[in-house]
């Protein structure tokens, strides 16, 4: 289980560290401004999701209730981004 969690978390972080610079370079090539200014809601959801995933994966085991918590948090974030401008 530790190997699977390590692969999942490191893969997600590697994608994030690769995609953001590519998007910035692509925006420069297209002549579009892409500032890295995030709203407070975006920052709160980012830190809350990191916090939640850390504490759920910290034990190395999972159950259905933790899955329900993650799916519920995902739905809450999606609804928040839908209703907040």
UniProtKB/TrEMBL annotation:
The chain crosses the membrane at residues 6-29, 36-57, 63-84. The lineage of its organism: Archaea, Nitrososphaerota, Nitrososphaeria, Nitrososphaerales, Nitrososphaeraceae. It is found in: Endomembrane system. This is Ca(2+)/H(+) antiporter. The keyword Transmembrane applies. GO terms for cellular component: endomembrane system; membrane. Its main location: membrane. One of its GO terms (molecular function) is calcium:proton antiporter activity. It comes from the Archaea. It is a multi-pass membrane protein. Pfam families: Na_Ca_ex. Signal peptide: none annotated. Keywords: Ion transport, Membrane, Transmembrane, Transmembrane helix, Transport. Residues 1-82 form the Sodium/calcium exchanger membrane region domain. GO terms for biological process: intracellular calcium ion homeostasis.
